[in-house]
Amino acid sequence: MRIGELARRSGVSERSLRYYEMQELLRSERTPGGQRHYGEWAVDRVIRIQALYAAGLNSKKIAQLLPCMRDADGAPSEIATPRLVDELAAERDRINRMITDLIRSRDVLDEVIATASVGVDAPAVSGADAVGAARG
Fold first, then answer.
1. pLDDT in tens, 85-127
2. Does domain 1-77 have CATH number 3.30.360.10?
3. Which CB contacts under 8 angstroms, 24+ apart, belong to 86-95?
4. Using an 8 Å Cβ cutoff, are 18 and 26 in contact?
5. Where exactly are the structural domains of the chain?
6. What Pfam families does the record point to (predicted)?
7. Phi and psi (nearest 5°) for 33?
């Protein structure tokens, strides 16, 4: 598939896809006319790259990690090292700390909203109550 189709199917801009190639996170074959061509596996790869960026990893760490993951084509992982596993575990711990901090901040905000809502016409709705009401 061409770069435009990969961008459409993965939800990532063509500019980002070219950047991923420059960072050696993604590869393409070139047609005789110089156009990029990607295999079906590239959609899953790009989605995985986006998830890793969203998790806070930088392109250097992602480049180390990607060969250790299986793509849709089933390519085996052969280069995981104990050091890489330790670094990834540290990243996971960092994310968990961020989640804990966000939950704590949300809880404080819920308390402030509840206190500020006393005497106000609109009833206070906590985050948990809003989720329960949305579910129905």
1. 788 888 889 889 999 999 999 999 999 999 988 877 655 555 5
2. no
3. 87/61, 91/55, 91/56, 91/57, 91/61, 94/56, 95/55, 95/56
4. no
5. 1-77, 81-136
6. MerR_1
7. -85, 0
